[in-house]
């Protein structure tokens, strides 16, 4: 119930122009959109349990959440379509999220980087597992291990390709 309150509160806070922009992406892809919403709720819930202090800030939990979010969107959507189409939709919906709900430049860089990391991690696992047999645990366990090597993003010029990034919250 809390999730739906957050969802409707978010929609109410959006301008008409932003709502139309969102609808132009989700209406042509209703199944992907529903699966993405489910992925969003799942990723948020898991990140909150594993990283209660940083999942909603710019810390390590946020990095985990964004990467997991993209893995889940790609996983759920690839069960009903090709992985290529799932990844294309995942990129469009997550990039649009950053456009519709803008952050400070360094936070945006961090979120986009971790989104890309999640999509790349999905692609990395794809050859070893048929897409119909993917499970959430594959991504959760793998990303938890990768969190140990996460890097602190300090400025816009930093390039940590292949690593999750977060902002130092001290």
Task: Write a structural description.
It is a single chain. The protein is mostly helical and 170 residues long. The protein has one domain. Helices cover 67% and strands 2% of the residues. The protein has seven helices and two strands; from the N terminus they run αααααααββ. The protein has helices at residues 2-13, 16-26, 30-50, 60-78, 83-100, 105-125, 136-147, and strands at 151-152, 165-166. The chain has a two-stranded parallel sheet. α3 packs antiparallel against α4 (60-78). The longest helix is centred in the N-terminal third of the chain and has 21 residues, at 30-50. The model has no long low-confidence stretch (mean pLDDT 91). Residues 1-33 form the signal peptide. InterPro entries: DUF6973 (IPR054246). Keywords: Signal.
Q: Summarize the main sheet.
A: 2 strands, parallel
Integer-rounded radius of gyration: 15 Å
Q: Which structural class should the secondary elements be placed in?
A: mainly alpha
Task: Tally the beta strands.
Answer: 2
Strand order within the widest beta sheet: 1-2
Oligomeric assembly: single chain
Shape: globular
The string of secondary-structure elements, in order, is: HHHHHHHEE
What are its keywords?
single chain; 170 residues; mainly alpha; two-stranded parallel ribbon; 7 helices; 2% strand; globular; signal; DUF6973 domain-containing protein; DUF6973
């Amino acid at each position: 119930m809390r999730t739906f309150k957050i969802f409707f509160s978010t929609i109410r806070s959006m301008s008409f122009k932003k709502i139309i922009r969102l609808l132009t992406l989700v209406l042509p892809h209703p199944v992907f959109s529903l699966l993405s919403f489910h992925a969003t709720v799942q990723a948020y819930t898991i990140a909150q349990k594993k990283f209660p202090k940083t999942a909603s800030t710019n810390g390590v939990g946020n990095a985990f959440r964004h990467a997991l979010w993209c893995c889940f969107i790609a996983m759920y959507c690839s069960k009903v379509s090709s992985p290529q189409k799932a990844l294309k939709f995942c990129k469009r919906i997550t990039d649009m999220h950053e456009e519709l709900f803008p952050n400070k430049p360094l936070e945006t860089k961090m979120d986009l980087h971790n989104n890309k990391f999640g999509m790349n991690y999905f692609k990395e696992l794809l050859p070893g597992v048929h897409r119909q047999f993917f499970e959430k645990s594959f991504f959760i366990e793998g990303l938890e291990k990768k969190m140990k090597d996460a890097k602190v993003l300090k400025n816009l010029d930093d390039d940590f390709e292949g690593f999750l990034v977060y902002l130092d919250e001290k």
